[in-house]
Amino acid sequence: MKTIVIATKNAGKAREYRKMLTPQGIEIKTLADFPPININENGKTFEENATIKAMTVAKQLQLPVMADDSGLVVDALDGAPGVYSARYAGDHDDAANNAKLLQKLTGVPSEQRTAHFHTTIVAVKPNGTKLVADGRVDGHILHQLTGENGFGYDPLFYVDELQKSMAELTADQKNQISHRGKALRAFMRNFNDWW
Ligand SMILES: O=P(O)(O)OP(=O)(O)OP(=O)(O)OC[C@H]1O[C@@H](n2cnc3c(O)ncnc32)[C@H](O)[C@@H]1O
Ligand SMILES: [Mg+2]
């Protein structure tokens, strides 16, 4: 069994990775399994932030670490909230973030509410060897919260290809089409070489 640490404090992300990687014989640990590590997520791009998270934790723990930096990119808002998705309306408050997004899009018609979710995964070994992969899924921002599953902006994100909100999908359905699922599948194509 391979064990990899995911440098995340987000329980929703951890759940998705665990569901996708456990069947492949990879055990997931997260920051919840270790004493607190201070991470300064101050990069300007998804890749910079994922690298900061992975490097900080790999150096501290001396273990192979992967990190996920992700976000929602809304065309009518010039790409916001983007890399600031977690802190859009304050600190990691999903309800407040969703309320702010709806408010910013007041009066914007459906056809102009195009958006995508993006994930960059960066994995690093304590010796610095790095592996990067990206994924995205396209959709629209809804006019009201729809569905109960997932986390973050999922209840406001309409998945064009499935004609449902992301929060109406089961965990398996989300993993099949999501930014994170696509990034992870791209990542796994090079995982054995990196490991
Ligand atoms: O940095 P870590 O500890 O991994 O956890 P985080 O929640 O801060 O994660 P990010 O810095 O990558 O911020 C991404 C934010 O984008 C949103 N997000 C990312 N993936 C999402 C998904 O699959 N569904 C809904 N919202 C998502 C959600 O608000 C996240 O907090
Ligand atoms: Mg974060």
TrEMBL record:
Active site per UniProt: 69
What does the record note about the cofactor? Binds 1 Mg(2+) ion per subunit.
Superkingdom of the source species: Bacteria
Which interval of the chain is the signal sequence?
Answer: none
Binding residues annotated for substrate, in chain numbering: 8-13, 70, 151-154, 174, 179-180
Q: Which PANTHER family match?
A: INOSINE TRIPHOSPHATE PYROPHOSPHATASE, INOSINE TRIPHOSPHATE PYROPHOSPHATASE/HAM1 PROTEIN
**What's the subunit arrangement here?**
Homodimer.
Q: What NCBIfam families does its record include?
A: PRK14822.1 (NF011397), RdgB/HAM1 family non-canonical purine NTP pyrophosphatase (TIGR00042)
Q: What is this protein called?
A: dITP/XTP pyrophosphatase
Source species of the chain: Limosilactobacillus walteri
